[in-house]
């Protein structure tokens, strides 16, 4: 079986910065509360003329360049997102056209904040079996478009951005060693956007009722996240024949600094062994992990042979973890 790994990474975040101080003008909150409860100081907001596929495009061209391949060499594009440009065509098809990736198949993947890990697992299996050579996996979100900026429980958390990777064959010994994916649909009501689908089609009433914005039972999601981050990471390590002492760098979903700290405690890791950038970007759902990975690479924090663990959780409920030898 082919060893599959990451050939190149890329990221893109919009220029507009929304600070905690600006949020103080919008809702009853303050910088001290947001920083101490979440770790977030600012987040990026897409320009009015930017949609998810535009953010994905910039991250993807960076990843292709880093991988040293052209868009025509892509066999498949997977975009993990909960904020597609529209119902259909998929954001992956829109991206395929923007990139000129004429030979690539394309589809979107919906697993909320775990979407990027789900996408990596899907792409890795397809390359390992010989079906495809090069797959572009993107996490891209414009969460600002589904955020209620009058709800202080949620609007402080989310931001916009995109991260992308090109997957392909790597020398034996390197690449993805395991995946641990999971779901608990019974917890679906804890984190959702319920308007606009076939259950509750858009009407003037659904808009007035704010059904098109993110609803979140924050403390329930928090408890789930604390439990599942450690569980999923440990299970992925076990499947890879490793244990927590083997981790060189943890790349967690960037939802809340306290969730990350509890995962670090559970894995007995010092903070230096994890990539944390949520103070700059907030929670970017499916884009959080690939943006963090791309920044870790940019900052020279990832070296050949390093053992990386990526782990995330999100709406669904879903979770995913992976062990990767760089
Ligand atoms: N500013 C000031 N006060 C606030 C704010 C705010 N922005 N938001 C809530 N509060 C208040 C609450 O009203 C509450 O007041 P009360 O005690 O008078 O009722 C108090 O602060 C404490 O609220 P809690 O919800 O208990 O605060 P907690 O410490 O749990 O932090 C938070 C809330 C940050 C939302 C936390 O629960 C969290 O991070 N949850 C997980 C969120 C998450 O990771 N979501 C993943 C989404 S990923 C995806 O799939 C899109």
TrEMBL record:
InterPro entries: ACP_syn_III_C, ACP_syn_III_N, FabH, Thiolase-like. It is an enzyme of class 2 (transferase). Pfam families: ACP_syn_III (PF08545), ACP_syn_III_C (PF08541). It catalyses: 2-methylpropanoyl-CoA + malonyl-[ACP] + H(+) = 4-methyl-3-oxopentanoyl-[ACP] + CO2 + CoA; 3-methylbutanoyl-CoA + malonyl-[ACP] + H(+) = 5-methyl-3-oxohexanoyl-[ACP] + CO2 + CoA; malonyl-[ACP] + acetyl-CoA + H(+) = 3-oxobutanoyl-[ACP] + CO2 + CoA; (2S)-2-methylbutanoyl-CoA + malonyl-[ACP] + H(+) = (4S)-4-methyl-3-oxohexanoyl-[ACP] + CO2 + CoA. Residues 107-185 form the Beta-ketoacyl-[acyl-carrier-protein] synthase III N-terminal domain. Gene3D superfamilies: 3.40.47.10. Its EC number is 2.3.1.180. It is found in: Cytoplasm. Keywords: Acyltransferase, Cytoplasm, Fatty acid biosynthesis, Fatty acid metabolism, Lipid biosynthesis, Lipid metabolism, Multifunctional enzyme, Transferase. Pathway: Lipid metabolism; fatty acid biosynthesis. GO terms for biological process: fatty acid biosynthetic process; secondary metabolite biosynthetic process. The active site is at 113, 253, 283. Its main location: cytoplasm. The keyword Repressor does not apply. Residues 237-326 form the Beta-ketoacyl-[acyl-carrier-protein] synthase III C-terminal domain. Residues 254-258 are annotated as: ACP-binding. GO terms for molecular function: 3-oxoacyl-[acyl-carrier-protein] synthase activity; beta-ketoacyl-acyl-carrier-protein synthase III activity. Catalyzes the condensation reaction of fatty acid synthesis by the addition to an acyl acceptor of two carbons from malonyl-ACP. Catalyzes the first condensation reaction which initiates fatty acid synthesis and may therefore play a role in governing the total rate of fatty acid production. Possesses both acetoacetyl-ACP synthase and acetyl transacylase activities. Its substrate specificity determines the biosynthesis of branched-chain and/or straight-chain of fatty acids. The last Arg residue of the ACP-binding site is essential for the weak association between ACP/AcpP and FabH. HAMAP family: FabH. Belongs to the thiolase-like superfamily. FabH family. Homodimer. This is Beta-ketoacyl-[acyl-carrier-protein] synthase III. It comes from Paenibacillus nasutitermitis. The gene is fabH.
């Amino acid at each position: 079986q082919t060893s599959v790994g990451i050939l190149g990474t890329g990221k893109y975040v919009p220029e507009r910065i929304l600070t905690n101080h600006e949020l103080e003008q919008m809702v009853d909150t303050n910088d001290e509360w947001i920083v101490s409860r979440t770790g977030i100081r600012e987040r990026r907001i897409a320009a009015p003329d930017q949609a998810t596929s535009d953010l994905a495009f910039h991250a993807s061209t960076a990843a292709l360049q880093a991988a040293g391949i052209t868009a025509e060499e892509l066999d498949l594009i997977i975009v993990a997102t909960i904020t597609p440009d529209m119902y259909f065509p998929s954001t992956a098809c829109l991206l395929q056209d923007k990139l000129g990736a004429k030979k690539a198949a394309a589809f979107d993947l919906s697993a909320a904040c775990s979407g990027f890990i789900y996408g990596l697992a899907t792409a890795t299996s397809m390359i390992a079996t010989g079906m495809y050579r090069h797959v572009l996996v993107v996490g891209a979100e414009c969460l600002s478009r589904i955020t209620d900026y009058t709800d202080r429980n949620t609007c402080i958390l989310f931001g916009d951005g995109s991260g992308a990777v090109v997957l392909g064959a790597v020398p034996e010994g390197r690449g993805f060693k395991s995946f641990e994916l999971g779901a608990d649909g019974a917890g679906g009501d804890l984190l959702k956007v319920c308007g606009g689908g076939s259950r509750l089609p858009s009407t003037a009433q659904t808009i007035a009722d704010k059904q098109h914005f993110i609803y979140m039972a924050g403390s329930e999601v928090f408890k789930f996240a604390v439990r599942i981050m450690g569980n999923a990471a440990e299970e992925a390590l076990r499947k890879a024949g490793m244990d927590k002492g083997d981790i060189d760098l943890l790349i967690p979903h960037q939802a809340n600094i306290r969730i990350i700290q509890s995962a670090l405690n559970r894995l007995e890791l010092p903070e230096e062994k994890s990539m944390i950038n949520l103070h700059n970007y907030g929670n970017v759902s499916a884009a959080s992990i690939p943006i963090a990975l791309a920044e870790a690479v940019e900052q020279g924090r990832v070296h050949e042979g390093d053992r990386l663990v990526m782990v995330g959780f999100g709406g669904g409920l879903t979770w995913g973890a992976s062990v990767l030898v760089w």
